[in-house]
Specification:
27% of the residues lie in helices and 23% in strands. It contains 17 helices and 29 strands. The strands form eight sheets. A six-stranded mixed β-sheet has the order 11-16-15-14-12-13. Helix 4 runs parallel beside helix 5 and helix 14 packs parallel to helix 15. The chain is globular and about 80 Å long. The relative contact order is 0.12.
Length: 663
């Protein structure tokens, strides 16, 4: 069908196919082929309608936990379930392709869109994204993986060049896209920025990598307004310019006539667009919703419960039955959902504002006094009384202070000014902690927060992220102990922003130099023994786990690991064990260790589980710039199993000789 269509299309019709029909649809050539409708919504669908006066509004939808919370679950089943739910939401609203997920590496904690991304680590980011894609597309809706690539800050994103060496591209910034491509996404979205001076929409080398090396067989779609030269983009392999652009169409038509682009080059893009349309439509045929909207809300709550991270606990949590509580801070009961979610294209209009932690705690049998006390940056004197919050703290067993950021600080097109919370929030924490030693801080934010001014003064810290529509219920369950915390950090929380290499790297109005190379996140901190507040992969539980009996064996080219995780407490819990690999005496610069696998397992109290994992040759390889290929160096490698990147519980060494594993 595609070949017949292509041969019967005029040159002008082909050019139309390579351009959006409007803001959200591909061109249907006046009904000759199906149109594909696309929509934002990595954590909740963002579709628009017009009211009776012709004004657009965003249709309310299920607000799922942010991608950063999803990543903190380290649970691929959660990612798949969230994808399935989003697909059902899309079907309900007539959307064919979800513009998600974003797999950009968290190079800089101030990036305004970090709440949309999975991790500082490519293995974790890619693995979770792959499961998310399988969930969406398994339910008959296409995805558009974004933003290819190196869009790691919002600062001047339409113009700046991310200057990155080839090895770093291969090992860090390409890697999550490569893993995501294993799920066969129907499309990939290019980013706005330049890569080594070349606009992403014209990045032929990158598109070739996706298609030739990753097996990507979908359409490359521009981010909205990311095309500067439509002809150059088409020649590079960008298939669809979004949204509709008369200028882009004219550019292609004029250059075709002038011989600056051949009809064969246009046909290559047209072929991919036709295949994209066919695949999307075939994918959705016969599919029905897997879950009702009520069931999707329950999934959102379950994901939040697994992705919220307990960072500190001196024993105050879980709360004692019937405890008297003082809850303070606008984030505990925000009148606007924007206080507990990020902004931009990932912003969701919630079905309802369910954010009421005092009510959720009261429903669980606690005696709760609430005072909003402070806003994001100021105390609204006619509505808030910070002294009353302090008095409440003096009268109760436990004081709970809710702080955070929200879409006023974390949003598309802008970066955070600081890792620290606004001064009014830090002061409220310290004032409350001075009056009640059992102070618990709950942080609603989309990325790492500098907690050093107050971390040592409080009894417990719960990092809730942006937990979505069921988030407050999940927080209450974790505080009460009816749910055992099992989330772990998918990014490092440094002691100070200046400790991060990206913070001091070269940056001008036109260029961001990735001079740290491979030293991103824990790869840097672990290599140079730089202390951090909370390491990558860290998270506490109400259970206690012991690791033992690491066994290694070889099966053909794969390394087989087996080890035991034992719950030595009286509380059932889930533990995330992480496997890292490091070359002990490398011939080229390599991080001390790199994440190569992980497992999240339910371990009942007093029992143990055996975890089995396979590491394939790619786990030991580095990009050989001398030969332009992946290489496994003969030598000694250390295999580490840990509860975090800095909490190694088991370790063993293997040798690789002539490309084969020996013991």
């Amino acid at each position: 069908m595609e070949k017949k269509q292509k041969t019967t299309l005029t040159a002008q019709e082909k050019i139309r196919l390579l351009n959006g029909k409007d803001f959200w649809y591909t061109d249907d050539l006046d009904g000759r082929i199906p149109a594909v409708r696309m929509s934002d919504g990595p954590v909740g669908l963002r579709t628009e309608k017009s009211d009776e006066n012709g004004r657009n509004y965003t249709v309310p939808a299920v607000a799922y936990p942010s991608i950063e919370v999803l990543a903190n679950t380290w649970n691929t089943a959660c990612a798949t379930a969230m994808g399935e739910c989003l697909a059902d939401d899309c079907r309900d609203r007539g959307v064919d392709v979800l513009l998600a997920p974003g797999v950009n590496i968290k190079r800089n904690p101030l990036n305004g869109r970090n709440f949309e991304y999975f991790s500082e680590d490519p293995q974790l980011a890619g693995t979770m994204a792959k499961a998310y894609i399988e969930g969406v597309q398994g339910q008959g809706i296409g995805v558009c993986v974004k933003h290819f690539c190196c869009n790691n800050l919002e600062y001047d994103r339409l113009h700046q060049s991310s200057d990155v060496d080839e090895r770093t591209l291969r090992e860090l910034y390409y890697r999550p896209f490569a893993i995501a491509c294993e799920a066969k996404p129907v499309s990939v979205m290019c980013s706005y920025n330049r890569i080594n001076g070349q606009f992403a929409s014209e990045y032929a080398k990158g598109f070739e990598f996706l298609r030739e090396e990753c097996g990507f067989d979908g359409a490359v779609i521009s981010d909205w307004g990311a095309v500067r030269d439509r002809t150059a983009a088409a020649k590079a392999g960008l298939d669809i310019e979004m949204p509709h652009s008369e200028a882009g169409m004219k550019k292609l038509a004029d250059d075709l006539q002038a011989g600056n682009i051949t009809e064969g080059e246009i046909d290559a893009c047209v072929e991919r667009v036709l295949q994209f349309v066919d695949r999307v439509k075939e994918m959705g045929e016969g599919k029905e919703n897997k879950r009702s909207e009520t069931e999707r809300i329950a999934v959102a709550r379950d994901i939040a419960a697994e992705g919220i991270v307990l960072l500190k606990n001196d024993g105050v949590l879980p709360l004692g039955a019937g405890a008297k509580l003082a809850v303070s801070g606008i984030y505990a009961k925000p009148d606007r959902t924007e206080y507990v979610s990020g902004g931009g294209s990932a912003k969701v209009t919630w079905l309802e504002n369910t954010n009421d932690l005092p009510a959720a705690l009261s429903a669980r049998g606690f005696d709760v006094a609430y005072e909003s006390a402070f806003g994001t940056h100021v105390i609204h004197s006619f509505m808030q009384d910070v002294r009353n919050a302090a008095l409440n703290a003096l009268k109760v067993d436990v004081s709970i202070v809710c702080v955070g950021t929200g879409d006023g600080m974390e949003f598309e097109e802008g970066d955070r000014e600081s890792m620290r919370l606004p001064a009014v929030q830090e002061r409220a924490i310290l004032d409350t902690a001075a009056r009640n030693p059992n102070t618990v801080v709950i942080v609603f934010a989309g990325a790492a927060v500098d907690m050093t001014p107050w971390e040592g003064e409080v009894a417990a810290i719960l990092y809730a992220g942006f937990p979505g529509i069921g988030g407050m219920e999940a927080v209450a369950d974790l505080l009460a102990g009816t749910v055992n915390p099992s989330g772990k950090l998918s990014e490092t929380f440094p002691l100070d922003y200046e400790d991060i290499p990206a913070a001091i790297s070269y940056r001008t109005a036109g260029v961001t130099r990735y001079q740290e190379g491979l030293d991103v996140g824990y790869r840097y901190f672990d290599k140079y023994d730089i202390p951090v507040l909370y390491p990558f992969g860290f998270g506490l539980s109400y259970s206690e786990f012991m690791y033992r009996d690491l066994k290694l064996s070889a099966d053909r080219d794969a390394l087989i690991l087996e080890y035991v995780v034992e719950n030595v407490s009286e509380v059932d819990g889930k533990e995330i064990s992480q496997v890292y690999v490091g070359e002990c005496a490398p011939l080229v610069y390599r991080p001390k260790k790199e994440l190569k696998g992980f497992s999240k397992d339910l371990v009942k109290a007093g029992t143990a589980v055996t975890v089995r994992m396979e590491l394939h040759p790619s786990a030991f390889a580095h990009w050989d710039t001398a030969r332009d290929r992946w290489t496994i160096t003969d030598g000694v490698y250390e295999i580490c199993v840990g509860a975090s990147s800095q909490d190694v519980r088991l370790a063993a060494k293997i040798c690789i000789e002539n490309g084969k594993i020996v013991f």
